[in-house]
């Protein structure tokens, strides 16, 4: 739309003064009418003026005066000028032509994107309630951003023409009023139909809905955009507006006159409205009986979730920082053992750890409660990734010669500097997810009584570099106390490892299947050990054994153990008092 033609004119102040004069003028007329009405009411049966007036006369006079004022204010409000009604007839014709062309283009683009997302969902079987793959997330994110932008642009056109009633009932302005209403109503029902079609497909997979809701784009889109999109465009308020608009459409079409209806633009809009209404009746019929309770149930469900999640979060925080039987920080693995283990590790290794007697172990299934991504200290990191394949990949990515440390320094300068600085006493060696966020830690900070390390056996250094780049991107992401793998705006420890190594376009990875726990797809750390045991000895096994420090609770020591012992750890009890 042409912004200069729709902006406030330089005569707005003068018009405001003129309206003020009109206001005083009309209030004076209202006062005279009220006085006249009061005098009529005070006449007796002989048409003689009664004085003093009775209480009933005074009440009737006040009520009639108030009614006249309200009617006049309503009519005055309708007649207030808007950017739409300020346009001259010639300006309106020019602007309407431009907006109609813009509308056709946006409608066509929105149709194409919604068809594309429907086809993609069917082809990829996203309708099953499972977390999305990385490729699916990227595809849905791109399509959603475009759909959101198209919808926003259409809503801007609707917002401009929704003041159609301010043209008043003048015959001179009838055609402009009629065309403005038709375009407004057409956008209303079209957005309802398309948003309903889009949302009905996406809601077949609640993980896809959660993912779309978690997307945030600075200055363009806030979190929760999909839910707002659905409830604003396909919700009860929109449906009530459509029903009212349909009734008004039938009325104005009858009384608009042949000349207005036969105008080429009006006839095209009328045909599109009738076609869209038929489509709505077939695919998204409006049922008020069903709608009466639906929004309330969803609101109640969200309210219960808001109450439950903070409580769940508080308990999880407390359990993750409290330990029974022994003091915090008293672990059986010594500093020398950590240093010895570190010599066997390579950046990209996946580690599992257990700190015995933590209350948080109770709420997590299996013996291993925690997963960690090992990256090594800065010197080991630089040496390991000084590799031709890694450099070749980075050259394709950046179009310039660089090493992995150069790329991370340029892409995440603050995080890379934090990694170089360490914690003041030790070098950072791992990235892990724990309360309150995804962060760097040393091996001694991340591990305690039991620890093991596994290595992706079929992945080269390039793929490991891609995984670590992904993990750097997740640093400082809040910890997900809801353990929801559908979105990445908050992560748990295993989700960090899973997402970092998840295969996607131009990236190999690890295929670790999620499991269902309490009706939700997730990945407990113990599943990594179970997966290792399941594939052990097979030619296509994805993980190799690297190191295992096993604890002896009775002697309060940790010992280097072997692969055979590690193979059975996923079957151990999670209860600390039952450990050997």
Given the structure, what is the number of helices? Answer: 23
Q: What's the CATH class label of the largest domain?
A: Alpha Beta
CATH topology of the largest domain: endopeptidase fold (from Nostoc punctiforme)
So what's the oligomer here? single chain
CATH architecture of the largest domain: Alpha-Beta Complex
Total beta strand runs: 9
Q: Structural class of the helix and strand makeup?
A: alpha+beta
> So, the CATH homologous superfamily of the largest domain?
endopeptidase domain like (from Nostoc punctiforme)
Low-confidence stretches: 1-15, 288-319, 324-328
How large is the share of residues in beta strands?
5-15%
Portion in helices: 55-70%
In the residues, how many domains can be counted?
A: 3
Largest sheet entry: 7 strands, antiparallel
Strands ordered across the widest β-sheet: 4-3-2-1-5-8-9
Mean pLDDT value? 77
Distance between the termini: 75 Å
Walk me through what this model shows.
- The chain is α+β, with helices and mostly antiparallel strands and 580 residues long.
- It folds into three domains: 77 residues; 202 residues, no CATH class; 256 residues, endopeptidase domain like (from Nostoc punctiforme) (endopeptidase fold (from Nostoc punctiforme), Alpha-Beta Complex), CATH 3.90.1720.
- The protein has 23 helices and nine strands.
- A hairpin with a 2-residue loop joins β6 and β7.
- α4 packs antiparallel against α5 and α4 runs parallel beside α6.
- The radius of gyration is 34 Å and the shape is elongated.
- The N terminus is likely disordered.
